Each structure stands twice: as structure tokens, then as C-alpha cells.
Amino acid sequence: KEPLHRTGDFEKQYETLFAGQHALIKDVQFSESWQARMEACQHRVLKIDGVQGGGLKHVLRHLSLAPQRFESFADPRRKYICCLVAIAMMLAQLSADGRQKPEARARAARALEAMTAKHVMQEGVCADFGEVCLRFLRRFDVVDRDPARASAALEGLVKALETLFVDGYI
């Protein structure tokens, strides 16, 4: 995970969305007002389209982030990508709402501006990569693991990565 944060402008995107003092996911995680707005936007997307990104048909209530856990490299990205339309809708509403504090409106506008095709693609690729790697690691993160299955697990990881990145199912 760390090398990604040091490549190009990925670190800036990571700070804007996940790690900065007023990062988007943190703001949603720790603000009941932002959570309610986010849920309302998800309901609206589901009402119009019937589905969110990744085939998600439910409202996500928790966009949690705990940077000390490896899961927080993969899971919040997956949720961010699945809720992208709802997040963009919420940010557009917040940035245009004159009742909000100017700094909150500016943060929402910056987060919305950061949602370029390039950055969304980076987040999607990282979310898929993190998900595949996390599934692989979880096979060994048990008390009573079977070493004889390590080879099959590694083959499964290689197959999944080839399917996503070589065959283009990303």
C-alpha cells in the first residue's frame, strides 16, 4: 500500500479522500449530518437507477476508515467507488449550499474536483487490487491454517490478478 501513496498525485488524492484532517470519508464517518446526506443521496440513486456502482442494491450506512488496519486500504476504496454517484451528488449539494460554512463548502468543492476520471480509475484499480490481496491474506490469517493449501491459494491469487489486470475484467 505505501508505494502507491508515493506515486505521482495519488498521495494528494489519498489525503483528500481518506487521510487528511478533513478527508471526505472521515467527514462522512464522523458527522451524522454528512452521513444522513450521504444516505439520502444513495436512496435517490437507488430510486432512479435501481442500483449503485458494482451492482450494489442497498444503502451503505458506514464508510469507516481505520488507517492502522490493512483492510482500510481496500474496503473504504471499494465503498467509495460503489457510492461514487451518491458521493458526487452529496458534494455538489454541499458545495452549492449557502447555509454551510465557507470552509465546508470549499472542502466539498475540492473533493468534487478531485473526482476526475484519472483519479476514479486509480481508486477503482486500487480497490480491486486491495480486495483480491485481502482475500488472499485472509486465507492465512487463521489460527489453524493448512500449509498444503498455500500453493492452491497462491494459484488462485495469480488467476484473479490475471483475470482483472491481464484479461481486462477490472
Write up this protein.
- It is a single chain.
- The chain is mostly helical.
- 69% of the residues lie in helices and 0% in strands.
- It is built from 9 helices and no strands.
- It has helices at 2-5, 10-19, 24-30, 32-49, 71-82, 84-96, 102-113, 117-140, 150-166.
- It starts with a helix and ends with a helix.
- The model has no long low-confidence stretch (mean pLDDT 81).
Quickly describe the structure:
This protein is mainly α. It is 69% helix and 0% strand. The mean pLDDT is 81.
Radius of gyration based on Cα positions: 18 Å
Report the structural category: mainly alpha
Q: Which term fits the overall shape?
A: elongated
The helix count comes to 9
Identify the quaternary structure here: single chain
Query: Would you list the SSEs in sequence order as H and E?
Result: HHHHHHHHH
